[in-house]
Design goal:
248 residues, alpha/beta, Rossmann fold, Dihydrodipicolinate Reductase, domain 2, seven-stranded parallel sheet, 7 helices
């Protein structure tokens, strides 16, 4: 599986390169894109997609959401499957992603952990069984993460909202006023070098359930992205996610 890696110079890009170098998942990095000019001895790296060689089986993106338009244009113009593992997209960029998926197989997830995919399903089940419960999501990440709340926390909130009548998502909490009955609160913490922790707290007047997922290594997300890349092989155009992959 020959891969062009967008964001090859970043933390996650280096994780992907390491796994591929170990022969994991049959992955081979044949090129990278990095606007800051990352350098690898045996991998050609281009500063933009305008310069990149499209000779690959799939593109894996761990860059920045601002590169979305150029990334999609390159993938669609060369009919290449694409794994987007970048978060923080604007509404306009999300529309671009959906439109591109009509032409190419596109895997897009806010979190590439199988454990997080399970957390989502468990949280939805708990919310449906306890419809009157208060629900709060607390996400904690390293102090370099630029988007808040995390894409994973927003996915959790949206999935829970899909089974909770009249649910509304509220990010952050400040000022005066009581908690609304159908509110799903999302709180963000940024500190140290924490890879990622997501907690869903479901509370009634008589009991509290806490569901928690903690990532111990960024390799977890790199492994998931490579699994997603392999999953796209021979898939028709469409938008795929972790739920689609784990249900196969």
């Amino acid at each position: 599986m020959n891969i062009i890696l967008s964001g090859i110079g970043g933390h996650m890009g280096r994780e992907i390169v390491t796994l591929a170098g170990e022969g994991k998942y049959g992955a081979c990095i044949v090129g990278g894109v990095d606007p800051n000019g990352a350098s690898y001895e045996d991998i050609p790296v281009f500063k933009s997609f305008d310069e990149a060689d499209p000779s690959c089986d799939v593109i894996v993106d761990f860059s920045h959401h601002s590169a979305t338009e150029a990334l999609l244009d390159f993938a669609v113009s060369h009919s290449l499957p694409l794994v987007i593992a970048t978060t923080g997209q604007t509404e306009e960029e999300l529309k671009m992603i959906k439109k591109a998926s009509e032409k190419i197989p596109l895997f897009f997830a806010s979190n590439y952990s199988v454990g997080v995919a399970l957390l989502v399903e468990l949280a939805k089940k708990a919310a449906s069984v306890l419809p009157d419960a208060d629900i709060e999501i607390v996400e904690t990440h390293h102090n370099r993460k630029v988007d808040a709340p995390s894409g994973t926390a927003l996915t959790l909130a949206k999935e829970i909202a899909s089974v909770k009548e009249n649910a509304m998502i509220k990010t952050g909490r400040t000022g005066y006023g009581k908690r609304e009955k159908n509110e799903i609160g999302v709180q963000s913490v940024r500190m140290g070098n924490i890879v990622g922790i997501h907690e869903v707290i479901i509370g009634t007047a008589s009991e509290t359930i806490t569901l928690k997922h903690e990532a111990h290594s960024r390799a977890l997300f790199a492994e998931g992205a490579l699994c997603a890349a392999a999953f796209l092989k021979d898939k028709p155009a469409g938008l795929y996610d972790m739920k689609a992959m784990v249900s196969m």
